[in-house]
Specification:
alpha+beta, six-stranded antiparallel sheet, globular
Length: 108
């Protein structure tokens, strides 16, 4: 089994990043985590996570109050789900950050 792990910065100021971890056997992904993290007010926060914990691929949308909205991913393989997760977060991280910051400001 081979493990892949890396950080990918999304913004020039390095306050937004993807944390990627995957395990594969031959050419098949058997589990993965792709998490968008944002540095807000000097602390890193997980904002959106795609993973395969609980035995299925899903998205966890995190909120500043600690609550999580879990949504299943309906792909025929973890390879496709991992590709989707990475691309979706690279395209939409700014919207996720904005929403998380709004929720953070609303809770003050």
């Amino acid at each position: 089994m081979k493990t892949i792990e890396y950080l990918f910065y999304l913004s020039a100021l390095q306050k937004d990043r993807l944390r990627v971890w995957a395990s594969r056997e031959k050419n098949e992904i058997v589990e993965f985590v792709v998490q968008y993290e944002a540095e807000i007010h000097g602390s890193w926060h997980p904002v959106v996570r795609y993973d395969t914990s609980h035995g299925f691929a899903h998205r966890d949308l995190m909120y500043p109050d600690g609550s999580v909205d879990k949504q299943p991913l309906l792909f025929e393989s973890y390879n496709l789900a991992l590709t989707f997760a990475t691309q979706e977060l690279k395209q939409n991280w700014q919207r996720y950050r904005h929403n998380f910051e709004e929720e953070t400001n609303d809770s003050k």
